[in-house]
What we know:
Order of helices and strands of chain B: EEEEEEEEEEE
Number of helices of chain B: 0
Mean pLDDT of chain A: 94
Shape of chain A: globular
Low-confidence stretches of chain B: none
Largest interface: A-B, 23 and 22 residues
Number of strands of chain A: 11
Oligomer: heterodimer
Helix content of chain B: under 10%
Number of strands of chain B: 11
Distance between the termini of chain A: 37 Å
Largest sheet of chain B: 6 strands, mixed
Amino acid sequence: KAGVTQTPRYLIKTRGQQVTLSCSPISGHRSVSWYQQTPGQGLQFLFEYFSETQRNKGNFPGRFSGRQFSNSRSEMNVSTLELGDSALYLCASSLEINQPQHFGDGTRLSIL
Amino acid sequence: DQQVKQNSPSLSVQEGRISILNCDYTNSMFDYFLWYKKYPAEGPTFLISISSIKDKNEDGRFTVFLNKSAKHLSLHIVPSQPGDSAVYFCAASVDGLTFGKGTHLIIQP
């Protein structure tokens, strides 16, 4: 069974640009969550989607947004990139809400 | 304010002995707790979970204990094996997962 797939694996952008990251959940999983991992802050929750609806949102500015499609695939978008947005962005999926989440290997975003 | 704390950044244990990883939380609304293991350059891998209505859950070599009155969670690994060397994160759920900062477990031969 294929795991959670995130594309691209690595991305380099400059300040002020915007970026879109993609996540394909495990087949049959309907919940998708996004996390940001940095050395200083650890893993921080960005948002959770279920059946194309955002259920929860973490404490991040409005520059961070996401969506989920009818096939459960999800994208997250970051606009007006800042140096501090350099991080590993992880996507996780689960069958339903409040079930164990299974993570992809992440997208490493570097801002120059 | 850290709602989930792992106070030991690292832990070294001899192969074959018990590894005990600890986690404290402050938010009494958390209703579901999980442990994840992470190797470098990979995403976290789910290990074991426990609902707030239970105080113990076992899966093979892994046992998670929950003490709600103390707001404390622990993961026991018995016996510890070299492949267990990794960073372990505890996480708690109410609206999205809140993670601790991790404990680096090193299994010594």
